[in-house]
Design goal:
Length: about 450
């Protein structure tokens, strides 16, 4: 029985009052949809490579949940088949994705779903994917997709593993024993790590304290905005995209990193959004919570979360896009030097020794947070084409969850030479999410006008 880490358990605690803690994506493929039974067989054939996808949670008393085999696992329950109403275009797909992302995953089952959407009017098809944040983070999720998908259109798929036989569910005595073990051993494990390397304890503690101080400074004082309202359970989903070459050209022309350019696009779009909402952004600096991976290369592809966070400024009050980019570049370099991520890691390590009641209280505090205005994730995805049953993956629009008083999440994924922006909004608070997606197109085009990239398209409807 594998126990959830403190960070993974906190994502379960955050899931209340309309906040759904699943990550996800809308994937659009060339060609007609595959036969449903063949598709189920293809996905089920690779599950031995990611056995967590056949496990569910059990909840011992006064301890963090455990992963156990689901004795009633049925791939057909998790892989669903649906179709779009006429005219079966992208708008209908976006509405369907919003409804799917509005539904909480069943905790009595393995925490994932894949919806096969049959078919778009232009001859393509789509997948809508959902996986609980307690199971997988955005970085490792990319690695899992490369296991489930093919890099060769003619590949036969992974060889089927041995026949699966679930281990019996733990009884009440086992769960009680696991609870006692966690409460006794978690603090000892923390102490053992210190005693094993006493020469590192002082320097590590110093870095952690400095990082916590930087994190506290960075997390203070996010300004009020139309994005920070009490959310409901319903969602809207929209998107934008651009050539990755365009963003690289902007980076090369004006300095910084690809992530700086991405945050500049987000800032430009939010500036237009505020004007449309009747808010003057002059002098305003919004704050984005930016998750970053702290996963070692040796652990890539492993399930569970190994992420920390930084709080990045979004200077929506700056009119000139180049000045915005340079402001963000300097701020992000300063944040990385400040050790905010080290402080976040320290909190994560402490969570592993905390009782579930403490995690629940911390989640309640987080749900009332005023630390940031929105979440922005940027995940470098595979730059080679991916296929499923010979159909090429054309577009990859990612989705990040919302916490209770944050009405917008922006997830960014690069794939096969393009960069995709997935926008998740609260249904009521962001009725104009389609206009915000157009603001992203405009912000991308604004940057495109500054560089000479003849082959780059500022934005495209996938």
């Amino acid at each position: 029985m594998d126990r959830l880490t403190g960070l993974d358990a906190s994502f379960l605690a955050l899931e209340k009052d309309g906040a759904h803690m699943h990550v996800g994506s809308v994937l659009i493929f060339d060609g007609p949809a595959p036969d449903y039974d063949a598709f189920v067989e293809r996905i089920a054939g690779g599950l031995h490579l990611v056995p967590r996808y056949r496990q569910r949670l059990v909840f011992p008393p006064l301890a963090r949940p455990l992963w156990v085999d689901d004795p009633h696992f049925n791939a057909g329950y998790h892989i669903r088949h649906t179709a779009l109403p006429a005219p079966a275009g992208e708008e209908e797909l976006k509405r369907l994705a919003g409804r799917v992302f509005s539904q909480q995953l069943d905790r009595e089952k393995p925490l994932w779903e894949i919806w096969l959407v049959d078919s778009l009017a232009d001859g393509r098809f789509a997948l809508i994917c959902k996986t609980h944040h307690a199971l997988v983070d955005g970085i490792s999720g990319v690695d899992i997709l490369t296991v489930l998908f093919d890099v060769d259109p003619d590949a036969p798929g992974p060889a089927s593993g041995p026949a699966w036989s679930p281990r019996p569910l733990p009884g009440r005595t086992e769960l009680l024993s696991a609870s006692v073990s966690e409460r006794l051993l978690a603090p000892l494990g923390f102490a053992r790590s210190v005693l094993a390397h006493p020469e590192r304890a002082g320097s590590n503690a110093g870095r952690s304290l400095a990082g916590l101080a930087a994190m506290a400074a960075g997390a203070a004082g996010a300004p009020p905005s139309p994005l920070n309202v009490r959310i409901g359970p319903h969602r809207r989903f929209d998107w934008a995209s651009a050539d990755l070459a365009l963003l690289k050209a902007v980076k090369n022309a004006f300095g910084g990193t690809i992530n700086d350019v991405v945050l500049t696009v987000v800032t430009g779009a939010l500036r237009a959004h505020l004007f449309r909402r009747g808010r003057d952004p002059e002098g305003l600096e919004l704050k984005a919570m930016v998750p970053i991976s702290v996963r070692a290369d040796a652990a890539r592809g492993a399930l569970g979360n190994q992420v920390a966070a930084m709080y990045a400024p979004l200077p929506v009050g700056i009119e000139d896009p180049v000045e915005r980019l340079r402001f963000i570049g300097v701020a992000m370099r300063d944040l990385k030097a400040s050790g905010q991520a080290v402080g976040a890691q320290a909190i994560t390590r402490l969570a592993d020794a905390a009782a579930p009641t403490i995690l629940n209280q911390a989640a309640r505090l987080q749900s009332r947070q005023r630390f940031f205005n929105l979440t922005v994730t940027n995940v470098p995805g595979p730059q080679v084409p991916l296929y499923v049953l010979g159909r090429r993956l054309q577009a990859f629009y990612p989705k990040v969850p919302l916490v209770l008083n944050t009405a917008l999440g922006v997830a960014v994924m690069s794939y096969a030479g393009r960069i995709f922006f997935g926008l998740l909004g609260d249904y009521d608070a962001l009725a104009d999410l389609d206009a915000l997606a157009a603001d992203f197109d405009a912000a991308i085009a604004e940057l495109a006008a500054l560089v000479d990239v003849p082959t780059a398209r500022a934005s495209v409807t996938a």
